[in-house]
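Dear U.,

For the methods section draft, I wanted the exact inputs and outputs in one place so we can describe them consistently. I've listed the two proteins in the order they'll appear in the manuscript figures. Please don't edit the C-alpha cell lines directly; just add comments below if something needs changing.

First protein:
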Amino acid sequence: MSIYVDLLEFKRGILDRVRRDVAKLEPVAQRAAQADLKIIESQMDGYQKRLEIWTRRVWDLHGLWLDPEGRRIRYKGGEATLTAREFQLLQFLLDHPNRYFTVNQILSQAWAGPALFPEEVRNYVRRVQMILAALEIPCDLVNQAGRGYSLELRVDN
C-alpha cells in the first residue's frame, strides 16, 4: 500500500511540474506534453483504484465495521454512533483513502452540496477525528494546506 501512496505522490509531483511548465513550451511540445499528462493521469487512476482495494481489504482484516442503518462504527470491540453527516464524511473518506479533498469537494461529494459554511466542515472533521482517536483506529484524518483533507491508514512496514 505504501508503494501505491508513494507512486501517487511521485506522479502528482510530475503532473504539477508539467502543468506549470507546459505554457513555456513550443506548440508541438505542448501537444506532446498534454498527451503525456493523459497517460500519467490514467496511471494514477489505476494506482488509486488498487490502493482503495487494498485499503478496504486491510480494514476488513482489522475488523473495521460500518453500519449505515444505525450510523455506527465498530473497531476491535469499541463502538460509536455518529451523526448522519459524521457518518457520511467518514464513509466518503474511507471510500477514497489517501486522497485529498477540499472543503468544496467534501460539500459536493460527501454531502451532496448542503448549505454549510467551511467552518462547519472543519467542525465535522474534528468530531470524526475524535471518534477515530477514541476507538484507537490506526488512521489519521489530516489537513494539508492547499490540498484539503485526507484519511490516511497507518501501516506498519
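Second protein (the one for the lower panel):
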Amino acid sequence: MPSLQDQLLKAGLTTKQKTRQANADKRKKNKQKRSGVQHDATLQEQVKQDLVKAQAAKQAKDNALNEQAKQQLAEKEQMLRIKQILVHHQIKNVDGDNEYNYTFNKKIKKLSLDTMTHKALVNGRLSLCGLDEITYIVTRETADKLAELDASIVLVQNDKVIEEKVDEDDPYADYQIPDDLMW
C-alpha cells in the first residue's frame, strides 16, 4: 500500500519539494528528541516564571514611583497652602523708625517697624514668618497654625512678656533698661 505522501503526490495536491521539506522537519524533530532538547516544556515554564517575576518587579517599581510622585505633590500642595495663608494674613504698612533684628537662613536681617508693631512683636502678639526669602508679619494665631504645618516657617515667635516683678533685693532695681536699647 502506498504511503499518504505518495498518494498526495499522485493526486497533485503536493510537490516533491514540499514532501522533502516535511520529511526533513520530521527528522529534525526526532533528532532533537533523541539528543535531549526536549526541555521545551521546562524552558517554556522557566520563561513564564521569568516573565511573571519581571512583571512583579515592574509593578513594584511603578508603585514606588507613583508613591514618590504623590508625596511630591502633597509637599507642593502644603507649600502652596502655607504661602496662601502667609499672603492673606500678613500685616502690611508697618514701616517705622524702630528696627527689629532677626535671623533668616543663617543671616541677620533688620526690619523697620513702627512703635506699636515693634511692641506687639516683642510681647508675642505678632510673629515673623519667612518663605522664599520673604519675611511676613502675622498674628500669633496664624503663626501657631503655620507651625503645625511646618515649624521651619516661623522665624520669630516670642513668648508673651509678663511684667516682671521687681526683686526687692536687686541692687539694679532703680536702673531700668532704656526703651531704645534693642537687639
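Candidate sentences for the figure legend, describing the second protein: The two ends are 118 Å apart (CA to CA). The helical segments are 4-11, 16-35, 40-89, 115-123, 140-149.

Thanks,
Y.
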